[in-house]
Amino acid sequence: MSGVKVTRDNVPALSKALKRLSGLDVLVGIPSDKAQRDDGEHLNNAELGYIHSTGGTVSIGGEVVTLPPRPFLDMGIEDTQDVTTDHLKAAADFALSGQFEAAEREMERAGMAASNGAKKVIGDGDRLEPLSDKAEAVRRSNGKGIKPLYDTGSLLRSITYVVRNKGE
Asked: Helix/strand/coil (H, E, C) string of the chain?
């Protein structure tokens, strides 16, 4: 005999907690169901966010334009990776100790940190591909700033996160 005495078998509870936690996703971006714009543009914020992130040719304001990639979501998530990792580790620790509500709060905090990181990339604007000369001139003539991806603020305000069950 090894001399080890089992006083309580907590494996089933730990297994349940880990299964429950691993069944959740933290998603950062622009949900299509909350992406409508009020400026009459036919593309919604989710579609614009995708096009801006990857680059592409699209009709905006009745004019066909080619947009360079400005991967604001990827940059924001990468910028906050240390913070989000800490929150996700804390979520796992809470789940293992049976505190699933605290684990979910940590997942929410990870999502909030990452979405705020993406918003900061747009707000700062200094790491994104600059506007074309034509777009800059239009913005200036309308009395607006020249930060890329920040014309009305609608795209920035639409960035959020969700914690949900995988596959929903």
From this structure: CCCCCCCCCCHHHHHHHHHHHHCEEEEEECCHHHCCCCCCCCCCHHHHHHHHHHCEEEEECCEEEEECCCCHHHHHHHHCHHHHHHHHHHHHHHHHCCCHHHHHHHHHHHHHHHHHHHHHHHHHCCCCCCCCHHHHHHHHHCCCCCCCCCCCCHHHHHCEEEEEECCC
